[in-house]
């Protein structure tokens, strides 16, 4: 006979978004169950870059301080495009590198220790949103007041709500390896290669035991992503025998209405990933906590169906930031803009500083958009003038005609 449990908030997915949702809902006095098909710790494909913004959310939600056992500090970055170095920046606002295998287990353990019921290692057999019921493969039935889908880009909850997990025309795709043949150094810079894939980038993140290397971009623009990765690994002269793994990225295809009634979406399931930097962990923790709080408040008010009405305005800053990032993205990734962006990024201390301040959480996209509209016309005129002078001059500054 199936065992049935009445739960205030059921969370599907136990990554950073799901664990944050559980912790936040528990903090509001709700009963919480977390369901995940995996047991923890489990492997997770991700570069593992923790920005200053993400570090702040980890501290606020999980009371997790940045420590050397879980996070490796980095304050040097290198930026390239088409193999040409655009900048090396030292002593910038600090970022951190981590392994998701370790981080996710710590966050999930924190949620369970706070009182969340552990249904990890359990697959979902059926999901009935109208009946507010989740049936697991082992026969357990969980009846919920509110449901939070934090189950990644291929979200079953999002599919149940909207008929599809993601927009195929906007989805990104990444290929990645863990390269243990590279001997990482604590002083080795984080490397980012703009345009290593179309409408995307490549990355090399040196960590203690290996270096995480990958390329990612819009899927529709990169039918040859394997070739992109091979070209990037050849450029770095490494990774020939490493195992390649792939995953989807919600690269700018976020949901402007991430939920409905008593059902909410958080993290990758809502598409909350920065379409320029690729940052997702920070938005996952932030949106997960907002979802958990909204769900718990709705249940406490005996009105679970109001959860989305509470959640939507709380996520407005995230959605506004991602919308602004989507507006800016063509300035970086569109093919006709590549020479302009490379030239401007190389020459402009302000642009490089703004990029690093964005990663540190010291500025946000709406402010960057406002500054971009002021600066781009002037930068464009300078770029055009330099090109005119180059075309009129020979290799030593002499007239080419």
Write up what this structure looks like.
The chain is of the alpha/beta class. Helices cover 38% and strands 25% of the residues. The protein contains eleven helices and 16 strands. The protein has helices at residues 16-27, 52-62, 100-114, 156-162, 225-236, 281-300, 307-314, 316-333, 338-347, 349-360, 365-392, and strands spanning 4-12, 32-36, 49-50, 72-81, 84-97, 117-120, 124-128, 133-136, 141-149, 172-179, 190-194, 200-206, 211-218, 245-249, 259-260, 263-265. The strands form two sheets. Strands 1, 2, 6, 7, 8, 9, 15 and 16 form an eight-stranded mixed beta sheet that branches. A hairpin with a 2-residue loop joins β15 and β16 (263-265). The radius of gyration is 22 Å and the shape is globular. The model is unreliable at 379-401 (pLDDT under 50).
Question: Can you summarize this structure?
Answer:
This protein is of the alpha/beta class and 401 residues long.
Envelope shape: globular
Instruction: State the end-to-end distance.
Output: 89 Å
The helix fraction, in percent, is 25-40%
Poorly predicted tracts of residues: 379-401
Strand content: 15-25%
List keywords for this structure.
25% strand, disordered C terminus, 11 helices, single chain, alpha/beta, 8-stranded mixed β-sheet, 401 residues
Topology:
Blueprint: E1 4-12, H1 16-27, E2 32-36, E3 49-50, H2 52-62, E4 72-81, E5 84-97, H3 100-114, E6 117-120, E7 124-128, E8 133-136, E9 141-149, H4 156-162, E10 172-179, E11 190-194, E12 200-206, E13 211-218, H5 225-236, E14 245-249, E15 259-260, E16 263-265, H6 281-300, H7 307-314, H8 316-333, H9 338-347, H10 349-360, H11 365-392
Parallel strand pairs: 1-2, 1-9, 2-6, 4-11, 9-16
Antiparallel strand pairs: 3-5, 4-5, 7-8, 8-9, 10-13, 10-14, 11-12, 12-13, 15-16
